[in-house]
Amino acid sequence: MNASPARHRQSGHLAIWLLPSSLLIVILLAVWEAAVRYSGISPRTVPAPSAIASATVETWPGLMEASAVTAYEGILGFAAAVVLGVGIGMAMYVWRGLRASVYPLLAGAQTIPLITIAPLFIIWFGFEPSGKIVITAVFAIFPIAVQTLRGLSAVPRFFSDVALTCGATRSWTLWHVTLRVAAPQIFTGLRVSAAYVFATAATAEYLGARNGLGIWLQAAFNSFRTPLIFSATLVIVVLTGLLLGLISLAELLVIGADNQDS
Questions:
Q1: Residues with Cβ < 8 Å from 142, sequence gap 6 or more?
Q2: pTM of the entire structure?
Q3: pLDDT tens track for 132-161
Q4: DSSP class per residue in 213-239
Q5: How does pLDDT run across 88-122, given as a tens digit for each residue?
Q6: Which phi-psi region, left, alpha or beta, contains residue 40 (left: φ > 0; alpha: ψ -120 to 50)?
Q7: Does residue 215 have a pLDDT over 50?
């Protein structure tokens, strides 16, 4: 009975956010176009949006081929990070000794610059996509694991006490009660992680790969085709937006609209 009003509230919130954002984007693009056309800025320095759109259409097949490679690496890397991140977060919640030993390693892994470990992954995996998938997963695990741990630790104890009193086992309570209550914070970790997966994959490709948006960016830079750099950037933004949208949909299905609003 309450699902329909909740959906209407969400639709209203979405419209409120999309309308000003869309209007602002249109204004910024118009100002950008006018500034480039009438200020004498070199198109090689800052191309106009119309030039970017034209270059994107002209190179569409090659751009989509490169985008498919990066999307493949980013999605698989993110999927692996979700499984490992949630699993590690749950393990650290259950075993405090593991938390004390694993948490510093996870935190330390995030401080390693990508440029320093990418050559190692090229040596280990070559120029194949598998190395970029592993790199993406490594850099995406930390936010998911940390938010899973924090979410589980923040669940009030009476939730599990009620389930245990009713005869549930500790493992069942963890999976079906504690984890569900902690789901909003876990999805927050998924969003933080998803915001960087395609950019990480493209950067890893830039440092060594056979195809992908990273190689596309490298070729565009070497040939001074600035509009194509913006095209690749736009694709990464779109891919990231689609992934964030899928996460929001999954959260809606898992938690429900009422719990999201709360």
A1: 85, 106, 107, 109, 110, 193
A2: 0.84
A3: 999 999 999 999 999 999 999 888 886 776
A4: HHHHHHHHHHTT-HHHHHHHHHHHHHH
A5: 999 998 888 888 888 888 888 778 888 888 888 88
A6: left
A7: yes
Cβ neighbourhood burial of 17 (10 Å; 0-12, 13-18, 19+): exposed
CB of 14 closer than 8 Å to CB of 26: no
Asked whether the beta carbons of 33 and 22 are under 8 A apart, the reply is no
Extract the tokens encoding 100.
């004390």
Q: Are 99 and 148 in contact (CB under 8 A)?
A: no
How many angstroms separate the Cα of 136 from the Cα of each of 30, 82, 198? 36, 11, 8
* R_g over Cα of the chain: 22
Cα separation, 261 vs 184, whole angstroms: 11
Closest CA to 105 of 152, 141, 134: 141
**What is the rounded CA–CA span in Å between residue 222 and residue 218?**
6
Q: Which of 43, 79, 78 is nearest to 196 (CA)?
A: 78
Count how many residues are written for the chain.
Answer: 262
Q: What is the CATH number of domain 70-261?
A: 1.10.3720.10
